[in-house]
Amino acid sequence: MANTALTDKAKKIFENFLIKQGNRKTPERFSVIDELYILPEDEHIDVEGLFLKMRNKGYTISRATIYNTLDLLVESGLAVKHQFKDKVALYEQALTYKHHDHHVCNQCQKIREFSDPKINEIKESISKDFRSKITSHSLVLYGDCLIENCENLTSSQSF
Hints:
Homodimer. By secondary structure, the protein is of the alpha+beta class. It has five helices and five strands.
């Protein structure tokens, strides 16, 4: 179930962002927030998946509007965009975003999120060695599925 307070907060932030940028506040743009923020926090979705989900719910919205809105959501800090290998871009909501890294299975394409304090220790060490304040990082590990009869190998999940 969607957290309506979270979605409402995202909409208010987005509204202020659009006003500041001089962009139009359209119902279609806010419907993208509704659908992105209804997803589980660890779910990633591409434009086509979001488009189909919204069309199946009766929204009248174009792919171009979804692309443009997602770009604005990323720019406003309300969405995070990921590019795994040569696949299409995937998005996740960012309002409750806690930094995490990803493991992507080469066979079943399942994306798993993880956090490991050792990575922060490495960042601190590199920061010290290079006399640099590291402000962000991205780590994606790719592996081959060893799970016998993996349910994701037959699922329609795509990215």
